[in-house]
Amino acid sequence: MMRTVAFLILLVPGILAAWGVKLMRDSLFGIVNPPFPGTAPQTIAGLLFFVFGIFFVGGFIFHRDKKRNKVQKRFKKR
Q1: Which residue range(s) make up the domain with 56?
Q2: Is the N or the C terminus of the chain less surrounded, counting Cβ atoms within 10 Å?
Q3: Which tens digits make up the pLDDT trace of 15-38?
Q4: CA-CA distance, 1 to 25, in Å (whole number)?
Q5: Are 23 and 45 in contact (CB under 8 A)?
Q6: In a domain, 78, yes or no
């Protein structure tokens, strides 16, 4: 049950990061998607989605490894 919840928690930011890459790619080729008025806002939104998704997944993995003492000494609690 807990693995399923963890998977669902990571699935949403992962999809968001993938959508961010798609938005940035589309704006590079001049394709404007409906919720955005132009390529510049689409690029900024795509970058924000991508960064948020990567940071969330990375933070989740770091927190899990920190709980299991699988990080370097400088990251362990004192």
Answers
A1: 2-70
A2: C
A3: 999 999 999 999 999 999 999 999
A4: 36
A5: yes
A6: no
Question: What is the count of structural domains for the chain?
Answer: 1
How far is residue 18's CA from residue 72's CA, in Å, rounded to a whole number? 30
Rounded-to-integer distance, Cα 28 and Cα 26, Å: 5
Residues 6+ apart with CB under 8 A from 56: 10, 13
Question: Hey, what are 44's tokens?
Answer: 């900024």
pTM > 0.85: no
pLDDT in tens, 43-75: 999 999 999 999 999 999 999 899 888 888 888
* In-domain check, residue 24: yes
Given CA atoms 28, 33, 36, 37 in this order, what sign does their dihedral have? Answer: positive
**76 part of a folded domain:** no
